[in-house]
Amino acid sequence: MDGVHDMGGMHGFGKVVPEKDEPVFHAPWEGRCLALNRAMGAIGAWSIDEGRAGIETLPPDVYLASSYYGKWALRLQNMVIAHGLAGADEIASGHALRSGKVLKGKLQAADVSRTLTRGSYGRTPQSEARFKVGDRVGAKNIHPPTHTRLPRYARGHVGMIEAIRGCHVFPDSIAIGAGENPQWLYTVVFEGRELWGETCDPTLKVSIEAFEPYLEPVKGR
Amino acid sequence: MSHDDDDAEHHSEMSEMQLRVRALETVLTEKGYVDPAALDAMIEAYETQIGPHIGAAVVAKAWNDPAFKRALLADATKAVQSLGLINRVGDHLIAAENTPAVHNMIVCTLCSCYPWEVLGLPPVWYKSAPYRSRAVNDPRGVLADFGLTLPGDVQIRVWDSTAETRFMVLPMRPSGTEGWSDERLARLVTRDCMIGTGLPESPQELA
User: Fold this and answer.
1) Smallest Cα–Cα separation from B135: which of B115, B158, B155?
2) Domains defined for chain A, CATH in brackets
3) Do A34 and B42 touch (CB under 8 A)?
4) Please, which residues bridge with residue A183 across strands?
5) C-alpha distance across the termini of chain B, in Å
6) Backbone dihedral region of B147: left (phi > 0), alpha (psi from -120 to 50 degrees) or beta?
7) CB-facing half-sphere around the CA of B96: CA atoms within 13 A
8) Which of B1, B21, B44, B119 should one mutate to test binding to chain A, selecting the residue with the greatest count of A CBs within 10 A?
9) Pairing relation of β-strands B102-107 and B155-160?
10) Tell me, what's the ipTM?
11) CB of A85 within 8 A of CB of A36?
């Protein structure tokens, strides 16, 4: 979806302000919030891309005004309600009012180290890759109203396949409950001037990780 | 808006979120979906075990051991795994090497993807709108926010983490560190130099 989360190239957000000696969490609730989200993910309550979509579909004013973990808390609340895992009335009252659904297990403290490793999204290819390293490709001018990982700033622009990263779960499919639908994944590199025009720093190159359905062949080299 | 108003707004988000997260934890625990002891263990791991010291050890090893550096650039997941610093490294970790001609920077414009296993949790600025918006079209401006100016002819390469591949920067080894041990070199390797918004400390600063 063309939401405010798709920030690449937007103006007006100001300077980057690093914080000296930043703590891992700025308040205890941030750690609880992260762990709650990860614990629900670890038992497969929803996929990583459904989770991302859950953040992208927050109202834009809420998205922009909330902190990172603030967005995670709102997403968690919306997701447990949407998946029928808890009711809004229960969260409002602060206690369970009905018994829970049966899920596949519960994350135990002894299994936490397993969750510190990122999930694996590579899948066995079912077909040959359409593109090879060095091919010129166009990022399609698409605007799906649902979750996608093709940033707006790349759409309609021509880049080059720099690397083939294997076949991966396709976020656009799994986020809408349409299965993993694995697709080839490429690193596609663009000249800065192709993306941003003639006033762009000529020394800039930007790459995206692009799934095959995002790309189309371009003639010539 | 005055600074005080800003603070008040910040505090009200804090208390509202504190209450909301507490309610969620209680409900999800009572429903039987989560175990608070597992949450404690996870928080402790991120506060005490996982952090940029892991990436720093990887970089230092690459500076001292050419065979390891080749392995790291060929398949960072496998190479980092071989060091045994962490349980298991996730798939598709990629190391991007800085050279005198190319400076690499990592961003996630769509959310905040970051190589947690080697750098820990991302800093607030990495997840912020200013960084996510500007890294891809004004990276030199972003570097200036960090007090860093690179020569005008250095190519800037920005990696937007738009899939389940993860990136870390392999910075250039500072001069004047010949013969240093891995442990001593690792102390020069900052989190920011592995994101690409900084350079390693100079050996003089350490001394």
Assistant:
1) B158
2) 28-115 (1.10.472.20), 122-217 (2.30.30.50)
3) yes
4) A168
5) 44
6) left
7) 27
8) B21
9) parallel
10) 0.97
11) no
What is the crossing angle of helices A68-82 and B3-30, to 10°?
A: 30
Q: Which of B21, B22, B41 sits opposite A109 (nearest CB)?
A: B41
Nearest of B167, B185, B168 to residue B176 by alpha carbon: B185
**Is the pLDDT score of B166 beyond 60?**
yes
Q: Which residues from A are below 8 Å from B130, CB to CB? A: 13-17
Strands A215-217 and A136-139: what pairing? Answer: antiparallel
CA angle A168, A140, A125 (to 5 degrees): 20
Q: Min CA distance, B73 vs chain A (Å)?
A: 13
The answer to whether A185 contacts B13, with C-beta atoms less than 8 Å apart, is: no
> For B51-104, what is each residue's pLDDT tens digit?
999 999 999 999 999 999 999 999 999 999 999 988 788 999 999 999 999 999
pLDDT at A135: 97
What would the 3-class secondary structure string for chain A be?
A: CCCCCCCCCCCCCCCCCCCCCCCCCCCHHHHHHHHHHHHHHHCCCCCHHHHHHHHHCCCHHHHHHCCHHHHHHHHHHHHHHHCCCCCHHHHHHCCCCCCCCCCCCCCCHHHHHHHCCCCCCEECCCCCCCCCCCCEEEECCCCCCCCCCCCHHHCCCEEEEEEEEEEECCHHHHCCCCCCCCEEEEEEEEEHHHHHCCCCCCCEEEEEEEEHHHEEECCCC
Neighbours of A48 (CB within 10 A): 18
Letter for the amino acid at A85? L
Element (H, E) at B25: helix B3-30
Closest CA to A51 of A36, A61, A62: A36
pTM over 0.90: yes
**Residue A198, phi then psi, degrees to nearest 5:** -65, -20
Q: Are B189 and B171 in contact (CB under 8 A)?
A: yes
